C-alpha cells in the first residue's frame, strides 16, 4: 500500500514541477528578452512588440480570426459561417448532407452485409428528402446537365455559376412550360459563356447538348428577351486565344491575329460576319505572316467551320489590312 502511495506522490510532484516549468515558459514568452518589459500584440501589422524598448519580438504572425469585420452583433451573426460555401451549382446550394458511396467506416474498414444494406436504404431516403418536389427535381436535372456540358466545353467555374443563376431565374419566372429542361439549361450555359467573355459557338454547344441547334438558338433568344439579359454581341477577338492555344501558335501569332481583327473593325469588314469565322481566318492569316505554317483544314477542325468560310474571310481581312497601308 505504501509503495502505491509513494508512486502516486511522486507522480503528483512531477506533474506539479512540469506545470511550474510551463508557467515559467509562458511568463518568459510574455516578457521582452532584452529588457524584461511587457509585450503587446499588434494585430494590424502581425507583430509582437515590447512596450518599453520597442523591440519587435515576433513578426508575420498568423491571424486566426475571420477575414471579415462586424460592427454589431446582428452583422456578426449574418457574416458568421461554417462549412463549405454555398453554391448555385447545386439544387440545394450545397446545404444538405451527402452519404458517400464507399461502404467503409471511419477507420477504412469494410462494412458488413447488413450495414451495407442499411446504408443503401439511408442513401435512397436521403436522395428522396433532398428533392422533395418537382421543382427541385427539375433543378437537380438541369444543373447536372449544365455541369456536364461545361466540363465537356472546358468552361470555368464562374461560367457554370452564372449559368445556374440564369436557369434559376428562368425557373422562378415560369419560363419552362412548353420547353425542355435540356433546351433551357443549354441556352443558359450559352448565355453565361458569352457574358463571361469566354464564348462558345452554337455548333460547339450543340455538339455536347442533347437538343438541336435550332432549338438552342430559339430558346436562347427567348430567355435573353424575357429575363432582359444584357449580352453584348460576340467579339471575334475573344475566340483568338483558344484557337491559337489549340493550334500551338506563338504569342506573336496571337498578337498579329488581334491586330488583323482590330483593322477589320476599323474598316467595318466584320459587320454581318460570323465572329467565329473571322477569328479563325485571322488566326490562319497570322500563322502565315509569322511563318508558323498551319493548314486550313487544321484551323477548320479547331474552329468547327468550313475551309471555304476561312478562305473567304481570310481574303477580306488581308484586303482590309492592305487598304490601311495604301497611300
From TrEMBL:
One of its GO terms (molecular function) is zinc ion binding. It comes from the Archaea. Zn(2+) binds at residues 32, 35, 50, 53. GO terms for biological process: transcription preinitiation complex assembly. Keywords: Initiation factor, Metal-binding, Protein biosynthesis, Repeat, Transcription, Transcription regulation, Zinc, Zinc-finger. Sequence repeats lie at residues 144-227, 238-319. Pfam families: TFIIB (PF00382), Zn_Ribbon_TF (PF08271). PROSITE patterns: TFIIB, ZF_TFIIB. NCBIfam families: PRK00423.1. Stabilizes TBP binding to an archaeal box-A promoter. Also responsible for recruiting RNA polymerase II to the pre-initiation complex (DNA-TBP-TFIIB). This is Transcription initiation factor IIB. It comes from Halolamina pelagica.
